[in-house]
Predict the structure.
Amino acid sequence: MTSAGSGLTVWQTCALSLLVFTGASQFALVGALAAGGNPLTAAAGAFFLGVRNAFYGLRLSQLLALPRAVRPLAAQWVIDETTAVSLAQRDRRGARIGFAVTGLSLYVLWNLTTLLGALGAEAIGDTDAWGLDAAGPAVFLALLAPMLKTTTERAAAALAVLLGLGLLPLLPGGVPVLVAALAAPLALWAEGRRAGRARGDAEEERR
Amino acid sequence: MNVWIAIGVTALGCYAVKLTGLLVPAGVLERPLVRRLAALLPVALLAALTSQQTFADGQALVLDARAAGLAAAAVALVLRAPFLLVVAAAVAVTAAVRAVGG
């Protein structure tokens, strides 16, 4: 629905849900395109958001022990929700069933609601008057909130906000978000230094 | 056309990472540093995207009804409201502020 509000056609919106099928990446791509970003920088931002799925795949491949032939088909369903459900099962059979059921039902629902949303947004016309342009950031915030557990995550988020907003007037569309991604390695580096110093202090005290 | 290019590139890229996770041997990606970085990247990207979509108008920074909507979403999140309610709160408050003339 937000995507149709950003100038994508119904077909483009549906293709996005069918082919990409990773919510955060889809919203990011649409947001970057709406902001006038170049298609490749927009795609790069969406791609980095999807990288976490590779790590879900790692956990799942051990858990599900799928035959090689099935893996390319199963891959499209490797997302936050299917991983969460599969990991919560007690045995392999349960995990496989959980993965298949969650994957199929989410895939069908997600694409149906995309179609309805896109058609609905077309019918409404001026989506901004209904406040629908606030749906995108609200979705991001809802995805982000549960991730902010430790100081490192909060520092990365704060730094990314500063970089993203500070560079926005200076760099072409889509690029500030990619630069803001550097907040992740920077926060990790700062965490490493802090841990190193704490260890150093502890050794000093022992002497 | 540009939009289709972006959709195509994103679809291929996102599918490739999903498949990579299923195919590569665990040892290659299981290093703690790589794992931490992969967990932090979405945090940084989502934070940057949230702030930009709230305060950006093209390349200019603005404070408008969307900020009120995002604040409503934040309150809903603190109150542990379900996902759809969080988004609905943001949409409703933004529309309301705009209707009043914000």
About this structure: Chain B touches chain A through 69 residues (CB under 8 Å).
